[in-house]
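Sample pair:
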Amino acid sequence: MRNDTGVTEGGEISLYYDPMIAKLVTHGPDRLSAIEAQGRALDAFGIDGIQHNIPFLTALMEHPRWRSGELSTGFIAEEFPDGFAPRKPAGEVAAALVAIAAQIDWMVMERRRLISNQLRKGAATKERLRTVLLDGEPTRVETSAIGEAVIVRTLGQDGSEIRLQRVETDWKPGEPVWRGTIDGQEIAAQVRKAKNYGYDIQHRGVAVYARVHGARIAELYALMPEKVIADTSKQLLCPMPGLVVSIAVEEGQEVKTGETLAVVEAMKMENVLRAERDGKVAKINAKAGRQPRGRRGDPRVRVIFARQRRRNV
């Protein structure tokens, strides 16, 4: 493996030059070996702070046409006509994600159990039966430890053993890349703490939101109504309450990315609100000199954006 890059932590990737972050090169005795090496290297390639195409490239390494070499210049347009979306977990990849999530849960709970001066009534106890949720899909497991290894038994509905996995790693919470072995096979995955409870895990082009619960909590969690996140992609919301100093656009006006829409005074500063994409102003729900109250209590400018052409990057 060779990683050619001129970008360092804290560096700026400007729009004036090629935005390539790195050129990752792998080789092997044949095409398939090089592809396998590339997939492993991409799984262990951690980049934070900006968006990048590592999930797409990782999924590409698993694509049958890519692996067989049946390629043409129309490959991306033919295989991803609606753009790229991470694959759903299935088979061996799903089993690996369950094992990683269960190991992380065991490690975190073990650390909690070691907290000193816990009251006996509320002390953290071992609960070997757990439920791993990958994007909400439950898998029942039983976890235990043998030395430094965590043993993950995947269970069926009747409690019978479906799979037994031995997981070993020196990963610590906060590290962006999980490296370890599952049944002796070396595996890497991208691991990030989710905004709420749980972890976002990426492996082999599959991205999941993973959380692990005890049996009773998992039973109650299944009854929780799903929270639908409001679509604000066509709105510009002020990030904080404040006084609208000025509105720089009118309804029906065409705007370009980065163009000033409004100025809001908050925290003793004037904050410029800019368009996040090209579009047309459909409605303005604020007036200069006022502090209006919308659904969220914040001044906001609602923008309907023009359809943009899809680009393959």
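Confidence is low (pLDDT under 50) at residues 294-299, 307-313.
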